[in-house]
Design goal:
384 residues; alpha+beta; Molybdopterin biosynthesis moea protein, domain 2; Molybdopterin biosynthesis moeA protein, domain 3; 4 domains; 6-stranded mixed beta sheet; 7 helices; 27 strands; elongated; binds adenosine monophosphate; binds magnesium ion
């Protein structure tokens, strides 16, 4: 058995081999760059107008309007001193332009433009390269691609980008008593839920869920399923069958498949019978079957490893204040389902490891060591 901190350290020490992959820019959101991005061009691409109005040459209060430039047009217009051109936002400014005046500040009669205010030189001009220069490093390795990054890469005319590949994750659910929702329940049976909740949690991360399987509590079937899944995934999550019951075959089946134990059992509640192992660059979590245990272990211990595959830094815990006094009975450090409002955490009722409702109603796991904790005490939380 390891302590919670030891479990975190073991996971942090794994450093899985990351795979670089070129993906379409539109597919890169949520992923982290594996190579620097150097701009192939100046942004803006050309000097252009920030306003609908008039391009002006020189400072005056009247101008002669000599033409018009719309966004996207290929005008060869050149302005001389005292000349102006009708212009629209994003249009290339004519040669000779010293400023653009917004149309609200103008008066036009025929081709004579008069201004209510003379703009300073450079007003309303967006100059070539003022945001980004050709050859400039725009994004560093590790930058997380967000929606604006996608837009920026497209602005640079890029179609694909090098990122750390999404890890491929498989889910294997064990348990003779489990029935899919939608099927009739027999005597002693319950509906299977961990497969669905784990996949839902995985879908919040940039991973590829490449396989989902069910097996009965049978050593041969379990071992075969593990072998098959390890043929195609980077991370395997197994639900149930890892405790010490007579029908718990997962640990032996993992050994049979050459998965080396990194740790087994964490001194915590819920989720003590957690197994974490490795076979070269593949990782296996055998999560306890109790629904709240399985999801707690996922958020605490699976997420940081997935982050390592992605090249994401892994600061997953934050500090908040406890909203009320609370006593942790027993001797195991405990993660409680809690509702964290901006300022404080409220620990919810019904915390048994078999109970999911409090998990569904909360938004964070609060860590508390055994003993008495006073209202206002600083506690660590993991948001989910
Ligand atoms: P196990 O870890 O396999 O001994 O299971 C512990 C408890 O969790 C038992 O009450 C199981 O019925 C329940 N359980 C295991 N797997 C699931 C699952 N996939 N969905 C819902 N409950 C489960
Ligand atoms: Mg079981």
């Amino acid at each position: 058995m390891v302590s919670i901190e030891e479990a975190f350290e073991y996971i942090a020490a794994q450093r899985p081999v990351r795979v670089k992959q070129h993906v379409q820019v539109s597919e890169a959101v949520g992923l982290h760059l594996a190579d620097v991005v150097v701009s192939p061009m100046d942004i803006p691409v050309f000097d252009n107008s920030a306003m609908d109005g008039y391009a002006l040459c020189g400072a005056s209060d009247t101008y002669q309007i000599i033409g018009e430039v719309a966004a996207g047009s290929q005008s060869e217009l050149t302005l001389e001193q005292g000349q102006a051109a009708r212009i629209f936002t994003g249009a290339r400014v004519p040669k000779g332009t010293t400023a653009v005046i917004m149309q609200e500040k103008t008066n036009v009669e025929g081709n004579v433009l008069t201004l209510s205010e003379i703009p300073a030189a450079g007003t309303n001009l967006r100059l070539r390269g003022e945001e980004i220069r050709q050859g400039q490093e725009v994004f560093q390795v590790g930058h997380c691609v967000n929606a604006a990054t996608v837009g920026m890469l497209l602005t640079l005319g890029m179609t694909s980008v090098s990122v750390y590949a999404r890890p491929r994750v498989g889910v294997l659910v064990t348990g003779n008593e489990l029935v899919e929702a939608g099927e009739p329940l027999g005597e002693g049976q319950i509906y299977e839920s961990n497969g669905g909740s784990l996949q839902a949690a995985l879908r919040q991360l940039p991973v590829d869920i490449t396989a989902v399987r069910r097996v009965t509590d049978n050593f041969e079937a379990t071992s075969r399923a593990i072998g098959d899944l390890l043929g195609e995934v980077d991370v395997l999550l197994i639900s149930g069958g890892i405790s010490v019951g007579d029908y718990d075959f997962v640990k032996e089946a993992l050994a049979q498949n050459d998965v080396e134990e990194i740790f087994y059992k964490v001194n915590q509640k819920p989720g003590k019978p957690l197994f974490f192992g490795r076979r070269e660059n593949q990782f296996v979590y055998a999560l306890p079957g109790n629904p709240a245990s399985s999801l707690t272990c996922f958020y605490l211990y699976v997420t940081p490893l997935i982050y390592q595959f992605l090249g994401r830094s892994s600061r997953t815990r934050e500090k908040v204040n406890l909203g009320h006094d609370f006593e942790v009975r027993g001797t195991r450090p405990t993660f409680y389902r809690a509702k964290v409002e901006p300022e404080h955490a409220t620990i919810l009722d019904k915390q048994s490891s078999s109970m999911l409702h409090s998990f569904a109603m909360g938004n964070a796991l609060v860590f508390l060591p055994p003993g008495t904790h006073n209202k206002g005490a600083e506690v660590f939380v993991w948001y989910y």
